[in-house]
Amino acid sequence: MTRTVIRGGLVITATEEVEADVLVVDEQVAALATPELGEQWLTDADAVLDASGQYVIPGGVDGHTHMEMPFGGTFSSDTFETGTRAAAWGGTTTIIDFAIQSIGRSAREGLDTWHAKADGRCAVDYGFHLILSDVHDASLRELDGLVADGVTSFKMFMAYPGVFYSDDGRILRAMQQAAGNGALTMLHAENGIAIDVLVQQALAAGRTDPRQHGAVRHPLLEAEATHRAIQLARVADAPIYVVHVSASEALAEIARARDAGLNVFGETCPQYLFLTVDELARPDFEGAKFVCSTPLRPEEHQRELWRGLRTNDLSVVSTDHCPFCFTPQKELGLGDFSKIPNGMPGVEHRVDLLHQGVVDGHIGRRRWVELASTTPARMFGLHPRKGTIAPGSDADIVIYDPHAEQVLSAETHHMNVDYSAYEGKTITGRVRTVLSRGQVIVDDGHYRGRAGHGRFLPRDTCQYLI
After folding, report:
1. How far apart, in whole angstroms, are the C-alpha atoms of residue 124 and residue 327?
2. What is the pLDDT tens value at each position of the chain, 466 positions in all?
3. How far is it, in rounded angstroms, from Cα 134 to Cα 132?
C-alpha cells in the first residue's frame, strides 16, 4: 500500500472550498482532514506533497477530443500517446475521444479500431464516444451492446454532407434507439446542406481565402440546426448534448429548451471564449490555423457564451482538440478554403484558460472546477470516480498555482502541432503537480508519466439528466 499526503492546500470542488489535507492510498482518495488532523498521516506517508498557497482540484475531464482522426485527406497530428501526454501537462487526467464508424462498416468495428489505436499508448485514462456515420437497422441494434460495454454516448453530424452527415430521419431513428438504451446523443449542429450551397457560391465568385470559412458557416445556420435537433429530440423523448456551441443564437435555442425543462445540454470550447473570427483574416494564409467547425465568431458572441456558462445553459467546456499542423496539413487548403482541415489544438490549455476566466471575473473558482471536471464526469457517466476529490474517488488530483504567470507558445507547449492558437498570450495560473490514479505524472516542470499508464474507462449512462 502506497500512502501519499497532499498537505496545506485549498481543496476546491464543484461544491466547496476548504483548507484540507488529502490522503491518497494507492490509486484512490482515502480521506480529507483539517491540517491539524492530517498531521497524523505524516508518520506513515510514503510521500508528502506540499500544496501550501496552492489550489488542490480534481483532474480535468475533457469530453471532446479527436486523436489520430482522419479528416480531409490527412489525420489529426496528435496520437493517443502525444495527445494524452499534452493533456497531462495541462492538468487533464481523463479524455473521451471519438471512435468512428466508417460508412459500410459496423459500429463495433469502428470502436475496435480506436481501441487498437489507444491501447497501451495513453498517459491518462480515456473513454470513447461513437461517431455514428451509417444508420441502419443493424447499426442501431449494435448501440445497445455498446452501451452495455460502457460506450454510452454517440455523435451524429448535421454537417459535412458526403462525409459524416446524417439526415433528419437517420437522426430521429438513432435518438429513438437512445431513448430505449439510455445513451446520450451528441449533435454537431450546423445546416450542412445550406452551408455547402454557400461554399460553392463563394468559390465560384473567387472568394477562396480562410475568411470565407467563417462567412459561409453563418451563425443562423448553427441556430437553425440546433433548433431542429431539439425538436427531433422532443419527438424521440431523448436527451441531447450539442457540441461546440459558438453562436449566441444557438445558445438561445438551448436556453429556451432548458427553460422548458428539457434534457438539452450545451458545450462550448475555449477558442470561442478567447478568440474571434478576426483570426481568420490573418495574412499569408495564417488564418487557416484558426479554421474549425463550428467557426470562430465575432467578439459579441463571447459575452453571451460566458453568460451561458454562468447560468448553466452551457454546462461543459471541452476542447474539440483536433490539431493539424500549419505546414503541410492546413496548407492543403491553399486556394480553396473548403479544403483546409477543420480543427484546432487545445487539450493542453483548457484548465488554464478557464482559470483565466476566473481571474477575469467571468466565473468563480467552484464553477471553474465544475465546468472543467465535475460536470463532464457526470454528463458522461464517470462520477464520482472522476471529477471530484472525495473518499473512494480516483486520485486524479492537480496542485495548481493560481499566481504563476505563463506565456502560451508553440515553443513551450507539448501538443504535436507546429503552432499555438494562443501564441504570446499571457495568462495567470499554472499546473504544478498532476496525479493520475495516485501516481505523480507531472511535477514542477518535469514529466514523470508514461505511455500505457492510462486505462480505458467503461462509462455509465448520463448522470446529469434533469
Report:
1. 28
2. 999 999 999 999 999 999 999 999 999 999 999 999 999 999 999 999 999 999 999 999 999 999 999 988 899 999 999 999 999 999 999 999 999 999 999 999 999 999 999 999 999 999 999 999 999 999 999 999 999 999 999 999 999 998 999 999 999 999 999 999 999 999 999 999 999 999 999 999 999 999 999 999 999 999 999 999 999 999 999 999 999 999 999 999 999 999 999 999 999 999 999 999 999 999 999 999 999 999 999 999 999 999 999 999 999 999 999 999 999 999 999 999 999 999 999 999 999 999 999 999 999 999 999 999 999 999 999 999 999 999 999 999 999 999 999 999 999 999 999 999 999 999 999 999 999 999 999 999 999 999 999 999 999 999 999 8
3. 6
What are φ and ψ of residue 296, in 5° steps? -60, 150
Residues in Cβ contact with 430 at an 8 Å cutoff, skipping those fewer than 6 apart: 352, 400, 401, 404, 405, 406
Of 302, 317, 309, the C-alpha closest to 349 is 317
From residue 399, alpha-carbon distances to 12, 57, 303, 435 in Å are: 10, 7, 30, 9
The DSSP code for 344 is: B
CB within 8 Å of 363: residues ≥ 6 apart: 306, 309, 310, 354, 357, 371
Angle at alpha carbon of residue 346, lines to 343 and 347, rounded to 5°: 120
Measure the CA–CA gap between 246 and 190, rounded to whole angstroms.
11
According to DSSP, residue 394 is labeled B
* Cell (9 digits) for 309: 456558462
Q: What radius of gyration do the chain's Cα atoms show?
A: 21
Give the Cβ contact number of residue 194 at 10 Å.
Answer: 17
What is the H or E stretch that residue 184 is in?
A: strand 184-188
Strand partners, 279: none
Distance CA 320, CA 44 (A): 43
Q: Can you say how many angstroms the Cα of residue 295 is from the centroid of all Cα atoms in its chain?
A: 16
| DSSP per position, 395-446 | --EEEEEEEEEEE--TTT--SSSS--TTTT-EEEEEEEEEEETTEEEEETTE
CA 402/CA 307 separation, integer angstroms: 23
Closest CA to 11 of 3, 29, 26: 29
